[in-house]
């Protein structure tokens, strides 16, 4: 299909970023990481939690061609860690020493975000210690079983404990966030015990109104939660929380597994998410698994441009 310049501009009017988790491990030089995203047609980057410290300098040499919109904690990979992981430490952990390590790594992430000009830090807040069998019993199977009423009551009760811990820890982060002009965006997680749930996210945003905190909506995670009946339907969650959502991870999944396919390779209803995607200030980040092929990623990007233009 041939497009006039005007038509091409319309298709590109919505900005799409690529998570560097896709190609961090294939390159030594950060410039090569950025160049690959440019060739594929992306407009920006999200520095993923797999970004090693030595790649930052190379990425900075490409900022005039492809800016960094967001940084996914913990970034760069914490010193001494064998590899990057977003939950190597949890800010809502019951143990103070592990929460302290989370704060130390977040301070480094905030500095990194400021260094590359990003305004949003994406974060996995942690897990509720609900002692539920649902997270692990179903792992590796396609069976969908709904948690019992007792499971949900236990999850909700212990979720309140986790929320109290998180709020106290978040207060300690506010000076660093304000210093660097950053927004702290909490991502929905693909487990029954993932914090915050839709209800918890809504409560948090209301209680912390005016603070530099927001939500991050991962499409694949939302579908997993819906399919496993751990949370409300994806469309309902995106509508309820839309006013607090600062960005999206555009991941496709088949059903109950966190596949991180390219958009169009699974069953996520991206068309239904167009109203959220079209809101002012919402970032759009494709976050594929490293095994996703470049041609599938390019096709997924073109699909999103057509669907949401």
Question: What is the compact description of this entry?
Answer:
The chain has 309 residues and is α/β, with parallel strands linked by helices. The protein contains eleven helices and ten strands. It is globular and about 50 Å long.
Question: What attributes does this structure have?
Answer:
11 helices, TIM Barrel, two-stranded antiparallel sheet, 309 residues, eight-stranded parallel barrel, alpha/beta, disordered N terminus, globular
Would you write up a description of this structure?
The N terminus is likely disordered. 41% of the residues lie in helices and 13% in strands. The protein has one domain: TIM Barrel. With 309 residues, it is of the alpha/beta class.
Helix percentage: 40-55%
Which word captures the global form? globular
SSE string, helix = H, strand = E?
HEHEHEHEEHHEEHEHHEHEH
Structural class: alpha/beta
Query: Strands of the largest sheet, in order across it?
Result: 1-2-3-4-6-8-9-10
Q: How many individual helices?
A: 11
Which sheet architecture does the biggest sheet show?
A: 8 strands, parallel, barrel
Number of E-type strands: 10
Task: Could you tell me the CATH topology label.
Answer: TIM Barrel
Report the average pLDDT across residues: 91
Strand content: 5-15%
Distance between the termini: 16 Å
The CATH superfamily is known as Divalent-metal-dependent TIM barrel enzymes
| Name of the CATH architecture | Alpha-Beta Barrel
Alpha-carbon Rg, integer:
19 Å
Briefly, what CATH class?
Alpha Beta
Total domain count:
1
Poorly predicted ranges:
1-12, 134-140
């Amino acid at each position: 299909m041939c497009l006039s310049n005007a038509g091409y501009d319309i298709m590109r009017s919505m900005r799409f970023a690529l998570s560097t988790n896709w190609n961090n491990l294939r390159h030594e030089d950060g410039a090569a990481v950025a160049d690959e995203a440019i060739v594929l047609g992306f407009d920006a980057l999200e520095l993923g939690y797999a970004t090693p410290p030595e790649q930052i300098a190379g990425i900075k040499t490409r900022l005039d061609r492809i800016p960094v919109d967001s940084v996914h904690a913990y970034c760069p990979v914490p010193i001494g860690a064998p590899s990057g992981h977003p939950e190597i430490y949890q800010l809502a952990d019951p143990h103070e020493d592990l929460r302290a390590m989370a704060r130390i790594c977040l301070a480094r992430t905030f500095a990194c975000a400021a260094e590359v000009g990003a305004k949003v830090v994406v974060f996995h807040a942690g897990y509720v210690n609900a002692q539920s069998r649902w997270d692990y019993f179903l792992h590796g199977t396609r069976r969908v079983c709904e948690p019992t009423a007792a499971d949900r009551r236990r999850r909700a009760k212990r979720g309140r404990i986790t929320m109290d811990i998180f709020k106290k820890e978040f207060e300690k982060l506010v000076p660093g966030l304000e210093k660097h002009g950053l927004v702290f965006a909490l991502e929905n997680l693909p487990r029954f015990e993932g914090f915050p749930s839709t209800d918890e996210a809504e409560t948090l945003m209301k209680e912390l109104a005016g603070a530099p905190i927001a939500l991050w909506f991962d499409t694949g995670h939302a579908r997993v939660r819906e399919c496993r009946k751990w949370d409300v339907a994806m469309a309902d969650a995106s509508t309820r929380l839309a006013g607090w959502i600062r960005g999206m991870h555009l991941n496709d999944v088949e059903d109950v597994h966190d596949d991180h396919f390219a958009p169009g390779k699974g069953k996520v209803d991206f068309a239904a998410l167009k109203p959220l995607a079209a809101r002012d200030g919402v970032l759009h980040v494709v976050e594929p698994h490293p095994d996703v092929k470049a041609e599938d990623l390019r096709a997924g990007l073109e699909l999103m441009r057509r669907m949401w233009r």
